[in-house]
Every structure is written in structure tokens, then in C-alpha cells.
Amino acid sequence: MQKVDKMPRFAMEDLDPFNFGWKLNEEKIEPILSTQDAIPPNVRNIIELFCTDSSCNSVKCVCTKEGLICISECKCKGTCKNVRTHPNAEDDEELHYGKR
Fold first, then answer.
1. What whole-number distance in Å separates Cα of residue 62 and Cα of residue 96?
2. CB-CB contact of 39 with 48 (8 Å)
3. Model confidence pLDDT, tens digit, residues 41-96
4. Among 22, 18, 73, which Cα is nearest to 51's?
5. Residue 75, exposed/middle/buried by CB under 10 A (0-12, 13-18, 19+)?
6. CA-based Rg of the chain, rounded to a whole angstrom?
7. Up-side HSE of residue 81: CA atoms within 13 Å toward CB?
8. 22: helix, strand or coil
9. pLDDT digit string (tens) for 13-25?
10. Span 15-44, mean pLDDT?
11. What's the average model confidence in pLDDT over 33-45?
């Protein structure tokens, strides 16, 4: 085990907050808020694939329309007829989200 005085020193005081997303506003340091979307568009598109039709019998069920099975995150909670009959939940997620 190394002695404390021989361990590398991390100079946190050398980091300038203004280089890491902070700004000075009326003598207070505050974060610079992001101008980008919190969720990238490709992720938003996946989220929107969850059905909003609790019966899943019509084209309102996006999962059925897109050829996906319903899962617990859908409005039907995965209790409709558009589900797999096997108990392996990981396979169900793969069928809904695609391979990761």
C-alpha cells in the first residue's frame, strides 16, 4: 500500500467551472441549460411505439400495426391478445425493441 504523500494528487482546484458548463450570473455561478432535446429523436420514436389502445384490436394499437408484440409498458399492460404465449420476458423485449 502506498503512503498518502506518494499518491498522485488530483488538482480539483485547477478545474475552471466556466469550461464545464457553468456561467457567472449576477455574481453567482449557475449551470448553462442545454438547448438540445433531452431525448434524441431515435429514442423518442421507440418510446412512441407503445400502444395507447387498451384493447389492441384496431390500428390505434401501434404495436399491432407495426408487427410488434405488446409489453408491460403498453397501455394494455401486455394483457391483450397481442402477446407471446411463452414466459420468457427477455425474448418479448427483444421482439418489441429489436436486438440490442
1. 11
2. no
3. 666 566 555 666 667 777 777 777 777 777 777 778 778 887 776 555 555 555 55
4. 73
5. middle
6. 24
7. 4
8. strand
9. 578 888 988 999 9
10. 82
11. 68
pTM above 0.85, yes or no: no
CA–CA gap between residue 46 and residue 56 (Å, rounded): 18
Cell of 61: 394499437
Q: What 8-state DSSP symbol labels residue 24? A: E
- Per residue in 25-54, is it b (16+ CB within 10 Å) or e — as a string? eeeeeeeeeeeeeeeeeeeeeeeebbbebe
CB 53 within 8 A of CB 74: no
Q: Is 24 exposed, middle or buried (0-12, 13-18, 19+ CB in 10 A)?
A: exposed
78 touches 91 (CB < 8 A) = no
List C-alpha distances in Å: 46 to 17, 39, 40, 68, 92. 35, 11, 10, 12, 15
Q: Cell numbers of 64, please?
A: 399491432
